[in-house]
Q: What sequence folds into this?
């Protein structure tokens, strides 16, 4: 058996929500053969130390990713458009996460 | 037999079973079928060790001879252990390990759900904490039993072999003696006859989905209530106890 053969199931991405209301944050990936196993493995791998109270698992191949070549056309046009940032008016104090 | 002696023995049954099963599962550490499952089983092992720790700590206090949980775990011999025969059976292949864990989980689930109502506050508190862990263990092992039983031809035959081999050790989990009658009268212990049908229906439900057959008219091996064990326990104790016995003052 070669080192390249992978018989450990498909790759899944894991997202953990620390507390209700907060966003789900990507924390890593794992191997599993189906949804239930992916969820259980995520619980065992990523939430053993009180990292969160909810989990998402997503098949890695369901994630559509931008590529390094996209950096220019995708993200650089934003650099010189300062008017898109909320810096021209005062934020009310109650708004904490802007 | 006094109530205190009965309670001490009862606690050894529970604590020893968790301890020996924890030790058995820990043998897989670093050898699991794949990384994720290796971690899952060692998590279960650690949960069991935590349960054993609290129960044996309490057992030491009930006995009142100043023995700590470590004294009880590491300085008793084979004929002083009251763990179930099922918990000490060898790991075999992963099918056997998972099935052993599943049969114990199903028992623990039914047992600790009832023990929560115990009039002994310490026992009831330990049960309340453990039942959450056990519920997860049962979910994990049930899905593996189903997956392997209803999987490939090979995984099915390995599971069926494991069931044929282990089923004979399930009868004595429900055996009761003087210890139980004394403690049931006090509202401390669980009536094992009352949880047996619940255990059977839980186990049958999963085994059916896993397309596995329970051996018909199987002979039921007994012994652990009298501290009589299969040949496996001596070897586990030798390995588990060698360090604290050869270096009695060793500290982390």
A:
């Amino acid at each position: 058996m070669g080192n390249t053969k992978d018989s450990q199931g498909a790759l899944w991405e894991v997202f953990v929500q620390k507390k209700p209301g907060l966003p789900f944050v990507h924390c890593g990936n794992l191997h599993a053969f189906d949804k239930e196993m992916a969820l259980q493995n995520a619980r065992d791998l990523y939430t053993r130390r009180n990292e969160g109270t909810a989990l998402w698992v997503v098949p890695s191949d369901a994630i559509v990713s931008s590529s390094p070549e996209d950096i220019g056309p995708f993200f650089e046009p934003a650099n010189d458009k300062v008017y898109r940032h909320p810096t021209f008016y005062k934020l009310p104090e109650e708004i904490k996460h802007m | 037999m006094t109530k205190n002696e009965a309670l001490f023995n009862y606690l050894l049954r529970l604590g020893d079973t968790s301890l020996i099963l924890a030790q058995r599962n820990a043998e897989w550490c670093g050898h699991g079928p794949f990384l994720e499952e290796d971690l899952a089983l060692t998590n279960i092992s650690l949960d069991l060790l935590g349960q054993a720790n609290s129960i044996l700590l309490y057992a030491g206090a009930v006995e009142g001879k100043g023995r700590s949980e470590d004294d009880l775990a590491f300085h008793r011999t084979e004929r002083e252990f009251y763990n179930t025969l099922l918990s000490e059976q060898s790991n075999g292949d992963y099918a056997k390990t998972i099935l052993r864990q599943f049969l114990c989980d199903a028992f623990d689930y039914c047992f600790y759900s009832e023990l929560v109502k115990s009039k002994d506050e310490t026992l009831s508190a330990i049960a309340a904490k453990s039942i959450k862990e056990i519920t997860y263990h049962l979910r994990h092992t049930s899905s593996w039993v189903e997956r392997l039983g209803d999987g490939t031809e090979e995984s099915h035959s390995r599971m069926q072999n494991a069931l044929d081999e282990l089923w004979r050790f399930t009868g004595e989990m429900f055996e009761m003696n003087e210890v139980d009658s004394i403690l049931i009268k006090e509202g401390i212990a669980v009536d094992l006859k009352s949880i047996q049908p619940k255990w059977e229906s839980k186990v049958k439900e999963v085994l059916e989905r896993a397309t596995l057959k329970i051996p018909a008219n199987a002979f039921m091996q007994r012994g652990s209530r009298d501290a009589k064990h299969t040949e496996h326990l001596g070897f586990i104790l030798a390995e588990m106890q060698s360090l604290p016995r050869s270096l009695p003052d060793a500290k982390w």
Remarks:
- The domain at 3-246 of chain B is CATH 1.20.1260.10 (Ferritin).
- The radius of gyration of chain B is 18 Å.
- Chain B has one domain: 3-246.
- Chain B is about 65% helix and 0% strand.
